[in-house]
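Task: sequence design from structure.
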């Protein structure tokens, strides 16, 4: 009968199969300090099973658009040589939740404002939140200010 238990230490290939990440991505995350595999006598990487959770967290966080430096900081608060427990994850989840909620709020605002913009077809320039004659929104900061939540002038006109 074959042994179906997961070994204590995993090869990079096993971790890649379990996470869906490529071997090169796992190596990259290692160079970024997100995982710290042990080395066997032959110099081969050996990962803890808890590294699967860490890498899964990295994968999901990046898919949500969170910066790698933030992900690194959050993971830096977890224990390295043991599986993080519920209390460990709860500690970093408070900050993670806050940033995730900010992103959700921004995405909802963008969705709602884009619906209106797409609906108008930019035919009514006096009402369009993208209309920005002479770059008047630049004093509000970089980026698409009106789509990011700043209010456009009340009486914008195409001929101003």
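Answer:
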């Amino acid at each position: 009968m074959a042994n179906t238990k997961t070994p204590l230490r995993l090869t990079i290939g096993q971790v890649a199969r379990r996470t869906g990440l490529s071997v090169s991505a796992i190596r990259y995350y290692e160079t970024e300090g997100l995982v710290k595999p042990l080395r066997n006598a032959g110099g081969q990487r050996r990962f803890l099973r808890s590294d699967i959770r860490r890498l899964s967290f990295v994968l999901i966080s990046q898919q949500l658009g969170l910066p790698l430096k933030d992900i690194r900081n959050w993971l830096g608060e977890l224990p390295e040589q043991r599986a993080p427990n519920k209390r460990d994850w709860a500690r970093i989840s408070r900050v993670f939740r806050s940033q995730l909620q900010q992103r959700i709020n921004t995405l909802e605002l963008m969705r709602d404002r884009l619906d209106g913009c797409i609906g108008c077809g930019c035919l009514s320039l006096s009402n369009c939140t993208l209309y920005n004659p002479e770059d008047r929104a630049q004093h509000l900061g970089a980026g698409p200010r009106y789509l990011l939540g700043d209010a456009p002038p009340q009486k914008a006109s195409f001929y101003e």
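The longest helix spans residues 86-120.
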